[in-house]
Amino acid sequence: EEEIHIVFSSDNEDKRAVEQAVESILRHTESPVHIHYIGEEPLEYHPTVHFIDLNETIKKYNLSEFINPNNRTHLNYLNTNFPNFARLALPAILPDVSKVMYFDADTTILCDIAPLFHSILNDGLAFKSPALAAVPREGLKGFGNNPKIDIPLSFNAGVLGLRLDLWREQHLTEKIREITLSNQHEMRYKLGSQPPLAILFGDNFEHLPFSWNMPPKQNTLELAGRQERRLIWKETDKAPPEDEVCVVHWKGGIKPWRIKKTKGRPTLFRTFDVVDREEMRKETKERREAMHRQKHLQQQNAIQSPSPRGEERRERQQ
């Protein structure tokens, strides 16, 4: 049976989210999985994850040619954040891997990945598989200043199945590079890694179930933590029953791990937040050690400083 390969990419700011996502995968998947992390530093709480240095990746695979210097807005970090573009170079980064699933850092996985992984992007007797699988969404009309680009059906690139062998065979990374370099000279689209993928693939992708990329409404995140309310999905008409949701995609401006108060974070995220759990263990251990030291000090002081009654008793005996 084919090996299961999973990829994450982030900078240190979002590394905590990746730790949480990896933990959620390991708790739900019984089959062996090979997890790769492209980042600035290895994962602290999952040391067996294969680490790929982000800075070396940027230089070696010319990720600067994928970024979008246009559209300087509050979302500019999406345009120029290198971890967002690492997925476009995966065929070269993992040259011996034929198929992967890529997850954005801001995801929580609630299902066993193995059945989906083995069922997607397989060649049939009379057809060849597409090179990409994703959850479909409404298309986008006119990227940037270019009304000619009209994509009736598209996808969200936060959860992807990728046939890397077909990417290499069809030179898809090079084709995306042509799109992004063209955009750097004359703006064809806004934002970062999503538009070039949408332009290249159009509707030629395998559809994943909606349950594998479910974004909650942003204004419900803090309520979900503070008041233990359930998450409310952004696209309620497509939402499966709650117990069938496989991937929660925390996309948008509010990220659970950036909410300062622990109790303000959604309970679902906290369930797999190993950083929070380890910090709590550390704090509990430090409190216990402090209490032990204080008790020991009190005992020492009692030995060294006898009580006044004890002194009186000794004086009478003399």
TrEMBL record:
Residues 278-292, 309-318 have a biased composition (Basic and acidic residues). Residues 297-307 have a biased composition (Polar residues). Pfam families: Glyco_transf_8 (PF01501). GO terms for molecular function: glycosyltransferase activity; metal ion binding. InterPro entries: Glyco_trans_8, Glycosyltrans_8_dom-fam, Nucleotide-diphossugar_trans. Keywords: Glycosyltransferase, Metal-binding, Transferase. Residues 278-318 are annotated as: Disordered. It comes from the Eukaryota. Belongs to the glycosyltransferase 8 family. This is Hexosyltransferase.
